[in-house]
């Protein structure tokens, strides 16, 4: 009979514990090598675009190619083991090689996408909006104008009467601050802006100006360019409504300014003779189309103008942004003299 002493049992237990510790350490190394960070010291941020419909295989290969993960196969194994291989979302992500697979997959599942913010001020024209988007590196200039001219956007009823050509969406890309994904196309960004316009338009008060929906947008754009103070917008709208109702020319400097590449400091008599459907000094009625993107206050003013007897207004020179309004031409002339014109 072989006898085993307590020392031998203790020795064997110590050896077994050591072996288990070594095995666990090896497993830990493998786990962290495959599933841990690619480079814990590399905190450089990379913008990774995951397109809609991308497979798990293509996503994993993209991450490996960009150096975000060490091994695409290991990443897929991690996703499969955790039952999340079908939960990844498309979008633009800021990822780093210092992130673990757990952190990366969490970002892709939660849709923690990287967005770019841009602001379109009230009164901007299509040209100015295009320049903002190009400067933000969100669109290609040529692509922007191709979408403006050629995309039907049939889902938006308010575009039914819009003229064809480059001015087709003038007035309808709503001025606001937006956050969009870096990989969004020009069409997608423009659609977001059109939907914003639609939401504001549908919330306008009941029409009291007697204008068609198309003419309402045109008038709102003129008011946007003429007014500075919100409280004056309904009054300025009333001046133009009064002129329309009595068959007077609008004689809006803003519609003339729209014809020039850059704003002029002063409108001259020869400018008033320019042959253009946007020249309201030469033509009766509203201009051919909107001359800028009106904000909500101008849209409301055009929909619900003040009831006044005013036919004229002139800007004050005190820096307030206000105007003097008058009913007759004689009063208008007196106001201009009073202000030093």
Describe this structure in words.
This protein has helices spanning 6-35, 56-65, 72-81, 101-110, 126-135, 141-150, 186-202, 213-226, 233-245, 253-257, 296-303, 329-339, and strands spanning 46-50, 91-95, 115-119, 177-181, 312-315, 323-326. The protein is mostly helical and 341 residues long. It folds into 3 domains: 46-113, Endolytic murein transglycosylase (Dna Ligase, domain 1, 2-Layer Sandwich), CATH 3.30.1490; 116-202, no CATH class; 213-339, no CATH class. A two-stranded antiparallel sheet has the order 1-2. Strands 3-4 form a two-stranded antiparallel sheet. It has a two-stranded antiparallel sheet with strand order 5-6. A hairpin with a 7-residue loop joins strand 5 (312-315) and strand 6. Helix 9 (233-245) crosses helix 11. The longest helix has 30 residues, at 6-35. The model has no long low-confidence stretch (mean pLDDT 89).
